Amino acid sequence: MLKTYKYRLYPRPAQEKNLLKILACARNFYNMCLSERKWAWELERRTVSRLDQQQQIKHYKTTFPQAKQVHTHVLLVVTHDIQKAFDGFFRRVQAGEKAGYPRYKGRNGFNSFGFAEHGNGFRLDGNRLKVFGAGRIPVRMHRAIPDNGTIKTCRIKYQAGQWFVAFAVELPDAPELPKTGRFIGLDMGISALITTSEGEKVENPNYYRAGQRKLRVLSRALARKKKGGKNRRKALRRVQRQHMHVANQRGDYLHKLTTKLVQTCDGVALEDLATRNMVKNPHLSKSILDSGWGIFKQYLTYKAASAGREIRFVDPAYTSQTCPQCGKVEQIGLPVRWLDCACGLSIDRDHRAAINVLIKAGWDTPLQLNVGDCAVRVVEAAGL
Length: 384
Ligand SMILES: [Zn+2]
Prior knowledge:
This protein is an alpha+beta fold. The chain has helices at 13-44, 50-54, 57-63, 72-94, 206-224, 230-264, 275-278, 282-291, 293-307, 349-361, and strands spanning 2-9, 112-115, 122-125, 128-131, 135-140, 150-159, 162-170, 183-188, 192-196, 200-203, 267-271, 310-314, 338-340, 346-348, 377-379. It folds into two domains: 2-170, no CATH class; 183-383, no CATH class. Strand 8 and strand 9 (192-196) form a beta hairpin. Helix 5 runs antiparallel to helix 6 (230-264) and helix 6 crosses helix 9 (293-307). The two termini are 26 Å apart. Bound molecules: zinc ion.
């Protein structure tokens, strides 16, 4: 099992200068690789592979003097990055989506470089990260890497004027969690992040809205600053920091929520919503992106896999229109929050959808419909 551990770096000014040089060199190489692929295809209909480009690293290093202080693996990782960019492009073409050919990277669009093997170009030594060409950089190890973990690769990132290192650490597989006998269905919503088939709502945290508000204020301040000025650069930093802060908070929150779900449930069912399609709808889009469904799904899936839990994705058709008790299907407008069915089931709209998701998942588990008394509890992420 691979797990990422991210730490803040505190390079001295001279070290920072060297890190920026490595970053610039990696970016230059990236753009050259992109250029080669583009023109080989445009002019000769020839495909350039990752291995082709890997073989040019040596040539690149002897041709460009600034590349001498850059470790070969940094450039090797660049060839992997560019391959990934093209893989994504081809996948989108295949899927008939808006493809977006990989782009040249400007100074602001390229913010990380990586190493492929611990001890080869980088080494973590206590509270210092030794980086080839940049020296021994202080690291704030706010949490320890487990003794049974092995550092495989690393990525050095420059974000909002700060430096970070992210290690990919290999850990032995965790033992599977004991069975709990609990299966739940989830409705992913906009007012509440999720509603469970047991009638609990997990709201989007308030501090998240507050963070968004602050971001808007800072963005407006940035827009007023004169182009190219020092104050503009400072304002931009503040916007970037706030973005990072909001993303971190959301990440933390979703980590807590998904961990809790995986610990307490044998199976979790959710709608197989194509987030990408829904984001196109301008009214729904902001909230969908805000609540981070994509990240939620991703966290939940990998945690479930390592804990031996099951995630089932079900077809979302009619989950909100069907009564789980009598099976009656009727069209409901978006503003209706509470539903009273002729069969006597009186229930919150999202709760009902979540029950239908659970039914569709097909686990052999009893449903508690609590006719006439389906109160919805609002809980914190950790309280599920
Ligand atoms: Zn009914």
